[in-house]
């Protein structure tokens, strides 16, 4: 990982994402190999690693009987922060994640999204160099998910290195500067989202011709622009473009010259789902969830610190 | 946020222990299920014993006491302290099950603070337990024959023993890692208590209970607390009781720290 980047760690359930995170945050001793976090070896210098990382594990582990403020203070003490600066720092973070009004309430009364945001604030109390977020948005409503996404982007902009595990391809696509795909405990692909997509194929132009069109003739006409997928419907064409978007106009012109009417047209870029399928041979469970219920209205964010 | 970095560093032991103890106490106060068993069960048991078994005082071998309540008070305190240990263990097991334990372990805080914070809280709760039963006893006609010094002796032994039982609970939780398993040892607490001289004098116990009770550390602790309440400030039983409590606490804390190390190694 490079300092200051958001690294998305993708994999299906049971692939080893959480185990990897637990090793990197020194909760689990590696049985082999080595890993360095913020320049320190996780097995030989775990206390140095712990001073430099923030951790928000899966299923925000918060004490439901304590208030948000109390937990922030406790977390600060655990990190050896000067007690005199705790209150201001806690208020700063609680405000940042939009929990000012709920800070005095017991965490047991919080919604799932509020818990995650408090968990994130606690992970940031000591201004970590590296932040580990283990599936931070799993189970969250779309609004809370977007709030967390914005916060991750803001952290990246401020120079925090973020190690993000997720099951959601769209989340990785939206947030990660680079992505690693893990399957059965092994990293099977790594790169920027764009480079990974480029690896697995060209963009596709999907066309639906007017009913009654001679599909065989149309396929013959556009054959020179790229390989075609077998038609899924009677008037459907899907062409893997050799040059990308610049091929669209010539294709449409060729069809128009031959008297074909185009009813629908869509340029489809390869997705991380395609990358995942190509690299692991399977589709990622729940991969579509964030996109399907993506919210239109965002929860108002508190002012930046 | 990086514009205002806090003075973060390695956490110091003292403040961390105090912070974790405070959290344990706040939790205990906010969840009646934690504190109620410490008070209700031993109080009911004390009431039943004093109300129904008072004639035991007339048996040969039973020491001369002003009242049966005076004699039974130490047993009730000890019983409450033991239940307190189980409760501390359940709280730690719930932290493990719920993931809060991982939060503590993933921080730079000294890891022994996880044990010591909980044990310190057990000691504070133990002080409250001793005070509660002494006040209850006084309210219902008991007296502390040793006076203020006697009260201090009972309080000291009770706090040390309560701390030790708390450590024992933590030890079991770290080994068992499950609240239901820790809860499962609850009946054993009573078995161990009944084969001591907490409720009845050694002279009235039959074999082999009398032999076991002779060496049971709970017998020494109970006798150490009973002496200033029911009799006088004779120093030998008090010191024996205190020594037993200190030994139990030292061993329990030591074993808890070893269990913590093992748990972290095996994680």
Topology:
The complex is a heterodimer of chains A (305) and B (267).
Chain A: E1 6-10, H1 17-24, E2 36-37, E3 40-41, H2 46-52, E4 53-56, H3 68-78, H4 83-96, H5 112-123, E5 130-134, H6 142-157, E6 161-166, H7 169-175, E7 178-183, E8 186-191, H8 193-200, E9 204-209, H9 215-222, E10 236-240, H10 248-257, E11 262-268, H11 272-280, H12 289-292
Chain B: H1 13-30, H2 32-52, H3 68-98, H4 100-105, H5 112-139, H6 147-176, H7 179-184, H8 186-194, H9 209-215, H10 217-231, H11 235-266
Helix pairs in contact in B: 1-2, 1-5, 2-3, 3-5, 3-6, 3-8, 3-10, 5-6, 5-11, 6-10, 6-11, 10-11
Report on the structure:
The complex is a heterodimer of chains A (305) and B (267). Chain A is an alpha/beta fold. Chain A has 2 domains: 6-197, 3-Layer(aba) Sandwich (Rossmann fold), CATH 3.40.50; 202-268, Alpha-Beta Plaits. In chain A, 37% of the residues lie in helices and 18% in strands. Chain A is built from 12 helices and 11 strands. Chain A has helices at 17-24, 46-52, 68-78, 83-96, 112-123, 142-157, 169-175, 193-200, 215-222, 248-257, 272-280, 289-292; strands at residues 6-10, 36-37, 40-41, 53-56, 130-134, 161-166, 178-183, 186-191, 204-209, 236-240, 262-268. In chain A, strands 4-5-6-1-7-8 form a 6-stranded mixed β-sheet, with helices on both faces. In chain A, helix 3 (68-78) packs across helix 4, helix 3 packs parallel to helix 5 and helix 8 crosses helix 11 (272-280). The longest helix of chain A has 16 residues, at 142-157. Chain A starts with 5 loop residues before the first strand and ends in a 13-residue tail after the last helix. Mean pLDDT of chain A is 83; it is low at 287-305. By secondary structure, chain B is mainly α. Chain B has one domain (14-266). Helix content of chain B is 76%, strand content 0%. Chain B is built from 11 helices and no strands. The two termini of chain B are 33 Å apart. The model of chain B is unreliable at 1-7 (pLDDT under 50). The A-B interface holds A 22, 25-29, 47, 50-51, 53, 55, 57, 59, 61-63, 65-66, 70, 73-83, 85, 89, 92-93, 96, 106, 122, 124-127, 155, 158-160, 305 and B 1-12, 15-16, 19-20, 23, 26-27, 30-31, 98-100, 102-109, 265, 267.
